[in-house]
From TrEMBL:
Family according to the record: Belongs to the glycosyltransferase 2 family. CrtQ subfamily.
Glycosyltransferase 2-like domain location: 27-131
GO terms for MF: glycosyltransferase activity
Source species, domain of life: Bacteria
Keyword terms of this UniProt record: Carotenoid biosynthesis, Cell membrane, Glycosyltransferase, Membrane, Transferase
Originating organism: Paenibacillus albicereus
Protein name listed in UniProt: 4,4'-diaponeurosporenoate glycosyltransferase
Protein function: Catalyzes the glycosylation of 4,4'-diaponeurosporenoate, i.e. the esterification of glucose at the C1'' position with the carboxyl group of 4,4'-diaponeurosporenic acid, to form glycosyl-4,4'-diaponeurosporenoate. This is a step in the biosynthesis of staphyloxanthin, an orange pigment present in most staphylococci strains.
Gene Ontology biological process: carotenoid biosynthetic process
Amino acid sequence: MAGSEGDDHSFPSLPSRLDDDSSPAVSVIVPVMNERRTIGAVLAQAKRVHPSTELIVVSNGTTDGSDRIAARMGAKVLRCAHALGHDVGRSVGARAARGEALLFLDGDIVLPAAKLRPFVQAVLSGAADVSLNDYSGPTRRSRVHPVVLAKHALNAMAGRDDLRGASLTAVPHAMSRAAAERIGLEALAVPPLAQMKALDAGLAVQRTAHVDVGRRNRRRRKRERANPLHRLITGDHLEAAVWLAEAQEPRNRAGAFPSPAAAGMQEERPVGATEERSGST
């Protein structure tokens, strides 16, 4: 089966929920939009992440049967008749999750379970509230992608240069249920905003492991070239920057973060662009 590279059939010693047998330790949340070629392999690996795992698939306007494949594999499928936008599915899935740790994946990026477990382990062990993919995007080139620049800039604004370009926009990532509720489940629909809320709340946010998702999804990059979605994602980072500036203003009267009006910030969204967002940029 695709995606079995590097996987084994033994489970490392991970903490489990022992107080409530009806609740899984891990909820794996996978938004899906017409990914029948990959969703089976994605879920096959996801269910091997931990012995106590539930699969939640958010069918985001799917018309190719991806939702039926997910249901056959034992996933709880939340069906949305119309496309809500890629990241909105994360928020919807998190609302239905019962696990102690929430692991977020994409339906078109197959990753072996062995690469997913460190993110879950970091959360279940208490080492992190939010466990990020240590993926900063390609930076050693003459022209760096605007989204990559935005990730680095936003973390720097928050005083977390150590995170570099690690971001909730990139899968895989995980967080505790408590962290998700502290951030606000609705904020998960805008990953950069969710990340700033986590940092501002003092949650333990860390780079856990490097998974190069940029090389794993050439089909999505072709789709983005036809539709400048990077402007939408950059707009999400701008929204997060404005929120951070306003949140820190009462605590920082010295003006380290200028007001959005003073900075001349204005969100740009291209005419005709959809609300779908990439998780691999």
